[in-house]
Amino acid sequence: MEVDGLRRAYGAVLAEVDAGGFGPPPPGRYSAEQIVAHLVTSDELMSEATEAVLAGSTYAFYELDEVHRPELDVLTAECGGLDGLADRLRQTSDRLVGLVARLGLAADTPVETYLREGFDLVVDEPLPWGRTIDLHTRVHLPRHLADLRALRTSA
After folding, report:
1. Of 69, 90, 66, 67, nearest to 15 (Cα)?
2. pTM assigned to the model
3. Are 117 and 65 in contact (CB under 8 A)?
4. Backbone conformation region of residue 23, classed left if phi is above 0, alpha if psi is from -120 to 50, else beta
5. What is the pLDDT of residues 58-80, one digit of tens each?
6. Which end of the chain is more exposed for a tag (fewer CB within 10 A), N or C?
7. Residue 115 has what DSSP assignment?
8. Is the pLDDT of residue 11 over 50?
């Protein structure tokens, strides 16, 4: 688990968001706003889990990619659109990176984890929390970075 890699992955996503110019999503896919709102929500859940791990508490982590579409739209409205969501993502990602930096040996703590990344990755088992953070860094964030880039090229 590499904190610098996590920080770089967020930097790439935020640079893409800041570049803007997104078109509408294909049917059934997330808009740019929904992607960023999803990442904010994911960060908040991951921060809660990381805090629980640091406190020595048991925790189950569920990352449900497609279930919360209406909540994402509510969060988008609360933040005032893409710029507000980007600001919120900066806050949530900074918080998560800070918590992850404190994990140390606690990164080996098993956490009941449910992840789904399309058809490419399905996890429904206890994983060391550091491994879940690594999947977030190497799979989840790059996937949504690619989604954002695809929205720009289709615009």
Report:
1. 90
2. 0.90
3. yes
4. beta
5. 776 666 554 467 888 889 999 99
6. C
7. E
8. yes
